[in-house]
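question for whoever is on the cluster today: can someone run the full assembly for these? two chains, 685 residues total. i dont have access anymore since they changed the login thing
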Amino acid sequence: MTSAARVATAHFRTPALVAALAAAGLMASAHAADIKLGVAEALSGPAGQYGQSIKNGFELAVDEINAAGGVKGNKIALQIEDDAGKKEQAIDVFKKLIFQDKVLMVFGPTLSNSAQAADPIAQAAKIVVFGTSNTADGITSIGDYVFRNSVTEADVLPETLRVSSKVAGVKKVAVLYGNDDVFTKSGYDAFKKALDTLKIPVTTTETFAKGDVDFKAQLTKIKASNPDAIVLSALIAEGAPIMVQARQLGINLPFIGGNGMNSVKIFDLAKDKSDNLWVGSPWALSNQTKENQHFVVAYTQKYKAAPDQFSAQAFDAMNIVAKALAKVKLSGNLEADRKAVRDALPTVTHTGATGAFQFRQASTKDGKPAGYDAQQAAIVSVTKAGKYQIEK
Amino acid sequence: MLGQQLVNALSLGCVYALFALGFTLIFGVLGVINLSHGAVFMVGAYAALQVVTKLGWPLWASLIAAFVISAALGLAIDVLVLRPLRKRQAPHLIPMIATIGIAIFFNSASQGVFGAENLRFPSELVPDEQIHFLGVQISVLEVAIIALSFALMAALLIVMRKTQLGRALRAIAESPKAAALLGINVEGLFYLTSATAAALGGVSGVLIALYSNAVFPLMGQPMLHKGIAVIILGGMGDIRGALIGGLFLGFAEVMAVAYIGSTMRDAVAFGLLFIVLLLRPQGMFGKVLERKA
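^ ran it for u. tokens below:
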């Protein structure tokens, strides 16, 4: 046979081959299809360190779920996209995952700022969006397809303030926050409310902006107002230099931080100046429950680094979704399946790395039932010599 | 509190001035608003961090490494991007847009290579000593930044005013064509200027990374925005203007925080800038419709 003839034969066979492969593929999918879940997190940009932790948490959970046989024999497959921590990109990525990749549901985005912009797209398309790190107020008011397992600042901060002010003997505080970011601003609002409730007077309230490198003007003013502690609503990128510069100015007061300050990165970035930072969270590295120890060991083995709150919440979120999926009979009709996931999720209860968890329905601004927030207890910790120590 | 705030303002102003010196130098000689200066600043910081952590070099040597690497980068930017545009006599907005592209390229590349997270210099290497006098605290690093800003400004001024090189550069700033007719090696001096400005940018990147305790891919962007304000305020292309403009912005910001409120910081600082420009549209040291070195 000449080579030309050989090519011709191969050419003739192709359609039959394609049909056979397609049939095999269809049959395989009828038996054990991958369940395709979308992930939209900030893997690059200023919030990249949070997004990476979250991605690690998801992948660890999926590895474990798939190794144990998947959900009713179906493997979970993640379609991971980078929202770069930007609203515009989060919107683009959500559209791609929902309309082009046709995922069953979407995890993300990392920042509350992005969630405010992108979650309405999922709501309109009637597909579950599940945030694992959005703690700003009002995210779940967007609609009944919006879920999160991150405990809101409004729930955590009063507890952080109550414990830290009792233990550290705080009578009056100064407040410092980033006023150009939904997350740090909403943290400030929650702090302010909690300070009012606890009747703790504020000596001065100062602000900074993303990308600032010098905080000494604000800190000098705070020092002069003579508080017992500094309440800080910041992301770690600004929070770490704030702590360092405060210590350099001789301000050795306790810092009471929001969610953004709850990361082991503080020890890398602020080194010996990281002591006496109080944070509240449902998760703490040193929490000795069975579920958390399993998570910490598995994470450390896989990534050769300590997990943080963001990876713990992502890990739990994936397991919560797996439990919901186990309750759903997937029909292959995407629209119906997406709704079935939405209906199954609120019934899930779970005990994971972050402790006992259940959903609590939120309401819209005019009081109608909306999405779901996390119902969880907070643990308050304080940093000492490069470690978080649990105070409650 | 006032004493401490004055010191804070001085060091913040010098941080801005240090960045603005290289920025204004390029504009003064080449007439290009080089928006990649923030990226060069970032590359300098990463270069120093790499030689310190990977090669174990001491801090002073890492400053030299940052100087050399960012000078090479500045030269490469000039040869590969600015020179071809000069040759084709592109209108002056084109090189500015091209430098935005360069900045995006380097910001993304460093994010790909080093990751998005904040890195820092090993804490044992960072000078952490505090100086106390009259109830005021200042770190050794801040003193170094302040001294270096003034010294660099003085050195650049002397070169510009008193040397043959400076005369040639000023001639180019006036008219590159006329300078070439007079036998000045215009292209060579463009290269020299680009490399020097980038080297200044890289070194200021290291110092400011040490000062703010963080190295990250987008660290140059906020500095670039302030830097533009500083050189407009000081007078585009004027070396004294970079220092005075930087100090003005630093003082305006710190005093706004101290006596008006930090939420009003940028409003006050940029409001003052606006008023200065209403009174002197050419900036503090600028001449109308003319760039000078």
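summary bc i know u wont read the tokens: Chain B has one domain: 2-228. The CA atoms of residues 156 and 239 of chain B lie 7 Å apart.
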